[in-house]
Amino acid sequence: MDRIQAMQVFARVVETGSFTRAAESFNLPKGSVTKLVQQLEERLKVRLLHRTTRRVTVTADGAAYYERASRLLNDLDDIEASLSNAQANPSGRLRVDVGTSVARLILIPALPDFFRRYPDIQLDLGVTDRPVDLMADNVDVVLRGGELTEQSLVARRIANLRLLTVASPAYVREHGVPETPQSLEEGRHTTVNYFSTRTGRPYPHLFDKDGESLEILGRYRLSLNEANAHMAAVLAGLGVSQVAEFGSRPHLERGELVRLLPDWDRPPIPLHVVYPPNRHLSAKVRAFVEWSAELFARQ
């Protein structure tokens, strides 16, 4: 048994959920694919897949083996790419994780350009505002805002995200315009807050002016942890909040949001592209990192 081929075949069966589709992708008879998986199970002395007449599902042991095997297969691809002409034409599967608003408004609309440049890269895009563990979750690259706490990762700052203090016109008509940041802690005003998934605590609203810095939590009735839902709450008139300029700009232009406290700046949030140190030789990782840096430089 060719162990590498057996691992590749098993991984493709898991990814496609079908022996038939896996066989087609490798241009092999279905019987050969079935035999390779059976030989792999015999060698490992565990059941990797549950088979029925209608579908194939992975067992707990199979899922654990798939995670390790797919990581190894990706590393093998990267080793070959680093020693061949594939550097000029990166290929293979790339797992990227990105925040929801950045994905919807910036990254995804630009992906046609990425695939024109790199047609042989297959992108698995995880879209979530929750922090991910790159090593445990087998993620190649993440785009994340905020200061970095994990020193073992490689990070490159590609942008500074500016935030604006805004509210809906309906909110302003009902509650008035806050004259100072401290007004957000008074009785007539409410805020829409964003809370940390890790700690469960809401982030304060930050304000800078003439060397004075303020942290204002505000009187909030609603706190969320997903950027698109957070923006929807502000548009619905539920309170004052600070939102990314790139996301609020269209709403400001259409009159759906009103900018507040323009004399007070909110310190920008650094945006980093981050990847594990063992990915630094990967042609596909380097391609995505350079492309995303170029994308945000244009933005």
CATH fourth-tier homologous superfamily of the largest domain? Periplasmic binding protein-like II
Given the structure, what is the number of helices? 9
- Head-to-tail CA distance between termini: 51 Å
Number of strands: 13
Shape: elongated
The appropriate CATH architecture of the largest domain is 3-Layer(aba) Sandwich
Q: Indicate the CATH class of the largest domain.
A: Alpha Beta
What percentage of residues falls in helices of 4 or more residues? 25-40%
Q: Beta-sheet strand percentage?
A: 15-25%
The chain-level structural class is alpha/beta
Order of helices and strands: HHHEEHEHEEEHEEEEHEHEEH
Q: What fold name goes in the CATH topology slot of the largest domain?
A: D-Maltodextrin-Binding Protein, domain 2
- Low-pLDDT stretches are none
Report mean pLDDT, rounded to a whole number. Answer: 88
Summarize the structure.
The chain is of the alpha/beta class. It contains nine helices and 13 strands.
